[in-house]
Every structure is written in structure tokens, then in C-alpha cells.
Amino acid sequence: MEILLDTANIEAIEKYAAALPLAGVTTNPSILKKEGNIEFFSHMRKIREIIGTNRSLHVQVVAQDKAGMVKDAKTLLEQLDQEIYIKVPANEVGLEAIKELKSEGLNVTATAIYSKFQAYLAIAAGADYIAPYFNRMENIGIKAPEAIAAMANEIQQSASKTKIVAASFKNVDQVTTALEEGAQAVTVAPDIIKQALAMPSIAQAVEDFAVDWESIFGKNSTIASLKI
Ligand SMILES: O=C[C@H](O)COP(=O)(O)O
Questions:
Q1: Terminal-residue alpha carbon distance, the chain
Q2: I need a surface site. Which of 27, 40, 177, 220 has the fewest CB within 10 A?
Q3: Distance 134 CA to ligand 1 centre (A)
Q4: Can you give the residue ranges of every domain in the chain?
Q5: CB–CB of 149/181 below 8 Å?
Q6: What's the DSSP call for residue 133?
Q7: How far apart, in Å, are the Cα atoms of 87 and each of 129, 158, 178, 193, 196?
């Protein structure tokens, strides 16, 4: 399982790169908008500096024609680094761009996936990752768990190296469902991770252990502070 952060927020990336077994960071223009008036390339370089090159950084093209998408991709590689995963929407022109980028051996993430058909085409085009939009699919009546299971099945049947990085989550149940249905990776906004780990029952269990320990060994004692 790979867990990625779906954010461009520097503090959140610093925090969760330290706290989690983080596999990478994904961004798109809507995610960037939340950070206000940023300088694009230096902001992306800062993210790379925090996560290093062992974690993947996925950055989306914005041109809407194939030549422009390829040009955006090349600019990202020149200005950032060669390890960047180029996010390309899996529409008609995007699929053409994906084929070209893959023929040059570049890392590609096919994004904005709402249907099995888009996913199958992106897998056949050789995308490294495909990003089905879980919550957005559910919002338009597409059963995301079933679609992800079908995508995972297609990857297996075609012995493809493509991985599913499920995206667009609104709660942690959607995240675990995506993984259970066969997604190899999930990209999750920081607030969902925070919510999931801030369950009152977890805090209560930790508090109960502390009280029981203190009742035996005294206040503020830890294992390391015991006399040996
Ligand atoms: O990169 C894609 C995002 O995960 C989409 O998420 P959203 O539905 O919250 O905008």
C-alpha cells in the first residue's frame, strides 16, 4: 500500500512526511489554489526538498491540447526534476499525450478518471498510475468500489505495471474501501488523515494506559526513566 498526500500545503507535507510512511505528494490546480498566491516552481521545489527523491511528486499539466500538454510536461521536468510524475487528464487529447510521454520513458499519472473505460485506455497507454476520483464518482451515481475492483482486475489480467492511486476522498471509509477493492495507492488530503487518527476512542485508550502506568510507577515516569 502507498499513501500519498493530496495537498500543496508545506506545513502539512512537513508534518506528515515525518509522521507517516509517506510515498509521495499529488497536486492539481485546485489544490494549488488553496495555497493562495504562490510562486509555482519554487513552491514545487520546496515540496521536493521536503519529500526527497525517494517519494513521488505528481504535478498536473494545464494545457488542453496535446502539444501544449507535452510542452508543460517538458517544462516541469526542466524546471523541477526528471523524477516528476506528469499528471495528465485521461481525456482524448490527454491519452494521446500520455502515449507520447510514455514513449519517451517519462513518469505519467493519468488523472480525472471517472469511468472504467478511461481507466482501461490509460492502462493500455502505459500510464504508471491511474487516479480514479472516488467521491466524485459516487456523486454522479458511479459505484466507485466496483469500478476500482474492475480496474484492479484489468491491471492483473493484462499483467500491466500500472498502479491505481485512488483520489478524491471525503472520508476515511472511502479510503479503506478503495484499498480493499485493489487500489495499490491512495492520495488523501491532510484533514482526512487528521480526522482518522483523532478518534476519541484512540485518545481514551492512550489516556487509560498512562493512568494505569502511573498508578504502578508514579507520575511522569516512563520505561526509560526506570532504575535498572
Ligand atoms: O487530484 C484529484 C483530487 O484528489 C480530486 O479531489 P476532489 O474531488 O476533492 O477535488
A1: 40
A2: 220
A3: 9
A4: 2-196, 198-228
A5: yes
A6: B
A7: 9, 22, 20, 23, 27
Q: Give the residue carrying C-alpha cell 492502462.
A: 123
| Pocket test residue of 129, 168, 193 for ligand 1, highest count of atoms within 8 A of CB | 168
Ligand 1 mean position, distance from CA 133 (Å): 7
Positions annotated as catalytic residues are 87
Residue 30 CA, closest ligand 1 atom number? 10
The whole-model pTM stands at 0.96
Per-residue pLDDT of the chain (228 residues; tens, 9 = 90+): 999 999 999 999 999 999 999 999 999 999 999 999 999 999 999 999 999 999 999 999 999 999 999 999 999 999 999 999 999 999 999 999 999 999 999 999 999 999 999 999 999 999 999 999 999 999 999 999 999 999 999 999 999 999 999 999 999 999 999 999 999 999 999 999 999 999 999 999 999 999 999 999 999 999 999 999
Q: Is the ipTM of this complex over 0.90?
A: yes
Pocket flag, ligand 1, residue 8 (CB < 6 Å) = no
DSSP 167: B
As assigned by CATH, the class of the 2-196 domain is: alpha beta
